[in-house]
Each structure stands twice: as structure tokens, then as C-alpha cells.
Request: fold
Amino acid sequence: MSTIISVSEKECSIKFDDGKILSLPKSSCVGFSPLPGMDVEVVFNGSNYIVKLAENSKFNANFNQRDDKFADCVNVRPFGVNNHRYIKASKVIYLLLLFFFGMFGLHRFYLGRIKSGIIYFLCSTVGSILILPPVIIFILLVVDFFKTIFKDTDEDGNTYLE
Reply:
């Protein structure tokens, strides 16, 4: 069994059971986006390494436990820095940011959704001249709040947010 210990923009570092560390390109990860702490299996296939998510990985267990609704965590999001559809984040911090600073998009920045955070900020500041954009943002905030308030949390108080 091997574990991903760090992930950069182009490669990930994997630590093997014998203590050996190997840096591989992220493209060698098949069927998932690598995250630190993932248990993986590394296979050498001719001249290339293939990295697969281990069967008993805690990340696999989370996806299967939730009826595979998080299977799209590896899809690319057009309005974000990170490429994961669902982000594991603190539910309390997210709700506080949403409640107090939601009109300015701070809850979106917290999840790494930079572009949508900028859109929220511009609609609530510059868009306030037109009155309609802040109303739309307020409706989106109410929807985000109620979607988040009823989500389950893990033992650390984290949940998967969109």
C-alpha cells in the first residue's frame, strides 16, 4: 500500500511502505484526482507508472457510503481554482461566512471558488446600482444556506460542499 503525501500543480509524491518516495506526474493517476492522504496502488506498466485508488482507501469508503453521489469529485469546475466538484470544509465556518459576508462572496472564496466569489462581490457592490443583482445574490445565499444547514458532518465537523 502506498500513500500520497503531497500534490503540486503537475505531480504528486507517493510514499511506499518501505519509506521510498516517488514523484509521478498527476496524469499517471487513473480515475481520480490525487489528494494528500489517499491510499493508492502503484503499478509499473512497461515504461509508465499507473496510480489507482486503493480498494480499502478511506476516500473510496466515503464515496461508496454516500451512494456514489460524490463520484464526480474529479470533474473539472469552470468557476474554481480547485478541480473538485465537492470540497471538504468546515460546515460552521462556511455557514458563518455565508451568513455575515455572503453578499461579498467570502463563502465562495473559502471553498476556492474564486471566479464565483468575484461575481458575488461585483454583483453586490457595483451591481447594487441596478438593484436586481443583489436580489438574485440574496436568493442564491438563502438556497446555499438551506442546502448546507441540512448536510451531514463527520466527526471533525466537516462536510462536502459544492
Q: What stands out?
A: Residues 2-62 form a domain with the OB fold (Dihydrolipoamide Acetyltransferase, E2P) fold (CATH 2.40.50).
